[in-house]
Amino acid sequence: MQRRRLAGDPDPRQLLERILRVDHAGEYGAKRIYDGQLAVLKTAPSHKTVRHMAQQEQAHLDAFDRLLPQRRVRPTLLSPLWHVGGFALGAATALLGEKAAMACTEAVEEVIDQHYAGQIEKLGAAEPELRGLIEEFRADEIQHRDTARAEGAKEAPGYELLSRGIRALTRSAIWLSERI
Predict the structure, then answer these.
(1) Which of 65, 127, 156, 166 yields a CA-CA distance of 20 to 30 A from 101?
(2) Residue whose C-alpha is closest to residue 30's, from 98, 97, 89, 115
(3) Residue range 20-38, pLDDT digits in tens
(4) What distance in Å separates the CA atoms of residue 156 and residue 134, rounded to the nearest whole number?
(5) pLDDT above 70 covers what percent of the chain?
(6) Helix spans in the chain (H)
(7) Poorest-pLDDT segment among 8-22, 128-142, 162-176
(8) CA-based end-to-end distance of the chain
(9) Cα–Cα distances in Å, from 34 out to 95, 123, 176?
């Protein structure tokens, strides 16, 4: 059951624009995080795992790159910030070690799982193709989170602080990208 629209809630077109804009921004940011990690983890055992996740994020980004012009939705104006910030976050966590890179992945993907679940609920029966795409991408993000956990994310130095900070950054990026 879809919840009733309240004053101040986006109308269906605004909701669609927000979903496409933020998901495009998120996949772009994720790609840049993995680019940063891969630049640092060139010879690390986790390089192959990170590369696989990066390839999936690129496929997600490609899908949203096609959808934005089809649906006449502009990307976020914050893309230059996500370009630099995503790479910096990925590289910085990788410089702390493979476990910290995995903690970054776990934290980001945990927030994205919740974010995509909320979008699926908001879409309800509307936009079945978009909803299906988001469900598919959500499954990949959950897999990334679970892989990061299996690779020792919780063993990262300063895990709690690192994880909490990255989750807060991710939530802020989502809120901003929906609107700007």
Answers:
(1) 65
(2) 89
(3) 999 999 999 999 999 999 9
(4) 30
(5) 94
(6) 12-40, 47-70, 79-95, 98-123, 128-150, 159-179
(7) 8-22
(8) 30
(9) 13, 29, 21
Residues 65, 146, 38, 165, Cα dihedral to 10°? 90
Tokens of 162: 């690192």
Query: CA torsion 59→61→62→64, rounded to 10°?
Result: 130
**Residue entry with tokens 């807060």:** 168
Is residue 50 within 8 A of residue 101, CB to CB? The reply is: yes
Kindly list the distances between the CA atom of residue 57 and the CA atoms of 18, 35, 53, 141, in Å, as whole numbers in the listed order: 19, 11, 6, 9
Sequence-distant (≥ 6) Cβ neighbours of residue 138 within 8 angstroms: 112, 113, 116, 117, 120
pTM: 0.89
Q: What is the pLDDT of residues 84-120, one digit of tens each?
A: 999 999 999 999 999 999 999 999 999 999 999 999 9
Rounded Cα distance, 107 and 129, in Å: 28
Is the separation of the CB atoms in 162 and 93 below 8 Å? yes
Task: Classify residue 149 by burial, with Cβ atoms within 10 Å: 0-12, 13-18, 19+.
Answer: middle
